[in-house]
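Q: For a teaching session next week I want to show students how multiple molecules come together into a single three-dimensional assembly. I've collected the sequence lines for a complex. Could you give me the predicted structure tokens for the whole thing so I can convert them for display?
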Amino acid sequence: MRISKSFIPTLKEVPADAVIPSHILMLRSGMIRMLSAGIYSFLPLGYKVIKKISEIINEEMTAIGGQEFHLPALNPREIWDETGRIEDFGDTMFHLKNRDYVLAPTHEEVMTFHAKGAMKSYKDMPQIWYQIQTKFRNEARPRSGIIRGRQFLMKDAYSFDSSWEGLDESYTKHYQAYQNIFDRCGIKYFVVGASSGAMGGSKSEEFMVKSDAGEDTVAYCNSCGYAANVEVAQSVVEPNERSSESKEVYEISTPNIHSIDELCEFLKIDERETAKSRVYIFDEKPILVLMSGNDEVNGTKLESILGGEVRPAHPEELVEITGAEAGSIGPIGFKERILADNRLKDGNNLYSGANKTDYHIGGIDLKRDVEKIEYFDLRTIESGEECARCGEPLDVFKAIELGHIFKLGTKYSEAMGATFLNENGKANPIIMGSYGIGVDRVLACFIEQNYDEKGILWKGPLKPFDIQLLGLNMKKEIVINESNEVYELLKSEGYDVLFDDRRDAQAGFKFNDAELIGIPLQVIIGEKNVKEGLIEIKNRITGERLIIGKHLLLDQLKEIG
RNA sequence: CGGGGCGUAGCGUAGUCCGGUUAGCGCGCCUGCUUUGGGAGCAGGAGGUCGCAGGUUCGAAUCCUGCCGCCCCGACCA
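A: Of course. Below is the structure for the complete assembly, covering every listed component.
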């Protein structure tokens, strides 16, 4: 493709609104442009890569028996009412104003709708159906360029099985297909156990990419490979030691002390001698959650223990419930349910709030003084804690979710009445799985993992072109002729070539553009070399230059690769 | 949704606190000449509802009010 006839609007300067590398580079290299917050257009160069990713996904899905669909983004509200997910999604779902339609954020409902009545017999299954299409979510805060948008390209697959063993098989197939897909794309990733959240179902795993731009936090053990979203991650934390003697409970005046750090500073004590209180509302009733020191409550763990959603109590509610403001709340005298983290188990001589603003209580013995107390693993784990599997220190870092596979079970088939007849002629709900990949995130993640100060470093099958051909002075007849000739030659050999044939651009300008776009191989036609029958090949990644006789060009390119 | 920042030409920005020429600069764009292996030089030129609306004032990019948009942190996130 000739650049002079293409639309590849590169930018020399960094757009003010872009912050993370992939966003900056996609804008600068002319792959995307923003239309509105979280809504991006793919320009030809960007879309070309998207299609390459899609093609890899298609091949791997076909390999496990997947069949591609094209589904409506516009959905009647009823099918979402059937599964109750209008409420689950809440404000995250887009609703149309002038007709009772929603914009689909995912496609369990539509796929189940089609499976219903079509999968009549156990003989009709297994099936794997998938699509690669735009999804819509009314994200409260889009961010990080393409990584979190209000509309995004997602591949989602659904498996339909007549038995739980069949689901296991479909799940395993997808797991393997996903590994193939990400490996082929050249993405460095890892797999974590995850919470299935509002999707429902039992087992789920996420394919993650380590990145500061990520929105998930994961724990990873470099030693044994244990990996889990911090929502569910566990570590070994021994309960605090119990002193041999319990002091009496006593009240302390602690004016303007609101945090554990302030309390420790004020009383000259260690944070492990304190019990932090958090009040949550579950099922319209308050629950006190006690944590050791500054340990953070893990909301996901709390919700799975309680079996439902919780929310933190508002400041006004705190006063109403406990009689004290935040910072002075504690277990002594708290009349509702009390949960405590395992680390506090049977602790004594603890300091906590007095349920009286600006007062704390010391000498608390949880065993003696707090009758109804239930202990659970409620902590959010931290970097450096011991791996629950092998005991080595865990690494905790941010990551981007690229893929997510779920064993859905019968949540959707039951809700929508999608049943089949089994061997005994009995109607059973179809057993489903759901498997997603953020296609445009694959692009962003690849760039996050492959760039330098000059631009993108493409390699492998995602590269938008094989070779960038630079004609350095396209006003000189000799360079024009030579580069046109080389262009035709490379094309005829099957290379996909981006030909910088711009007449007015300076050499340095072309070099910088080529490095920004980042095609792995550059073939450079300069006047001096042409006159000596020479041609230059440059490796974008290593910067290595080779000047060779023109007749050796094809051999040399084959050798490189 | 809470907190913070920003909005001036296609891009990046100065000016805004403290109101007062014709809103300035760099890049890009157009014309011509020169240059041609690391983001060219000279000359000439085009391009602005200063986010929108209202208000204060003799006078508003600048002050006030409301709204909209974008970015960052947080909350939320199948």
